[in-house]
Every structure is written in structure tokens, then in C-alpha cells.
Amino acid sequence: MICINKTYGLLAFVLPAIFIITSCGSNDELENRKSVIPLSNTIESVFTSQIDENLLEPLPSPLQIALIFKSAGLTFQDSLTNAFSNASNYSTTFSKLLNMGAYSSDFIYHVINEKPNPSRNYLKVIQELASDIGFGQIINTKENITRLDNNVNNIDSLAIIISEIQMNTDQHFRKNNEHLKGLVIFAGAWVEAMHLAIQNNGFSRNFNIPKALIDQRDILKRLLKNLHLCRGKKQNEKLNELITHLEAIHTRLDDLHLESFEEKDFSENKKEMDSLRNTIQAVRNMVIHS
What we know:
Elements: H1 27-36, H2 41-47, H3 62-71, H4 93-112, H5 116-132, H6 141-150, H7 155-175, H8 179-198, H9 208-214, H10 217-231, H11 237-254, H12 258-262, H13 270-288
Helix pairs in contact: 3-4, 3-8, 4-5, 4-8, 8-10, 8-13, 10-11, 11-13
């Protein structure tokens, strides 16, 4: 299992990471790339923050999260993923970042369930979103896409390829003090993974899946801590909305009692589980319709 310390990667930016501009270019080149598609000064200022990296909590990759649910017995259900056609609806930097994360989890979901053709389609959607906000002009983009495409059914190879990309990604976010962008992408991926788990037809028949879902509580706690830290005193409506929604999920997770699942008894938690399902659905709707 691959753990990324003090970063949001492996597939936290799965493929969005590919399109981040590395530090290899000159300052003039970097400015020219940024000027291709103007971004809101307001949202960009929110994404930039001077913080001590050592204060950030480590987060797993969405690939790790997906494999946890897979090992718990989560089966494939294609109807649950975000439609390709929705990609054209994302018009802001914030919505594109969130849905890079959501589509990343959908990509992983298809990869680990050996669905190569849809996986390639999700890869294409992620590439288009990244290009829309200025991440499309990085060195070796075509090479990276080819490598990922050729290894779309090989988890080990994907992990190696993306870990290489991660080094450049981390360098970019550290250099530009844009940790928050990575966190927003991770949040979108995490919400989509939770949605894929709790809305699955086999959820109520497999006690290991609810237990794995409850175990995500600590990850969410760390994500929220990092979001609050990076946001600081800055106020942005969309970011505040995201944090509020994630805090609602955390509250619902706190309402559940793991002991009843260990005893294979849903009755004690049925009301709380229904509430959690509805909350996750509401947050997921906010993400894909943002």
C-alpha cells in the first residue's frame, strides 16, 4: 500500500497532477501559460496561502481508499459514476478542481474493476478539465498520458508512474503555496468514493463496507483540519460551502456505532445510516453540479 506523507497524491490529483506546470520553464513562460485562460483573482488568492507544511496532516491517495472498499467487497455498479457529459458544465476553477477529484475516483473505480474502455474515457475527461484551467502545457504530457493509457489495467504500474508525476506535483504546489488546490481535488475524490460505496446495491448486504466507510472518519477529520489551516482567515463562498458540507458528513459519521456492525446488526444504526447516505448524496450533488 502506498502512503503519501504530507501530500495529497498518488491519485489525489490522479491525472490532474499530470497537467500541473512544473518548475522547469522560465518565469516568462509560466506567465504566458497562466495568461492563456484568465482565472478569478478572488479564487486564486484563496488557493494561495503561506503555511507551515509540517502542520498539514498526511492523507491517503484515492487509490488506497478505493482499494479499501474493494477489499471490503464493494462490487462494480456503472450507473453510480459521474457522467462524461457533465464535464462541459464545469465553468469555474473551483468546480473543475472538485470534479477532477470526482472523475479521478471514477477513473480508479473502473481501473480496479478491469473496465479499460471507460477508464480511458475518464482519463480523457480529466485531461480536458485540466487543460481548461491552464494545466495542459506541461512537459511530457503526451508521454505521461501514453504510459497511463498503456497501463490502465495494471495497478502496480499505475502507482509507479503516478508516483513519479507526484514529485513534480508536490514541487509545484509547494513552490506556489497552493496546497489548497490539492485539498479541493482530494475532497472531490473522497466524496465520490464515499458515494460509490454507500449507494452501491450491495451496501446493506455486506457488513464490511459500512465498517470501511466508518473508518473514513479519521481521514475526513484530517482533511477538514488541512482545509481550515489552508483557508486561514480568507473567505470564499464555495470553499466555505464545501467545508460546511464535509463537516455535516463528519457529524453523521460520529452518530454511527461501529460495535453494531461488528455484531452484524443494522437495526441500531438504520436511521443514522440513512441520514449519512442522504448527506453524502447531497454533498456529492453539490460537487457534480457545482
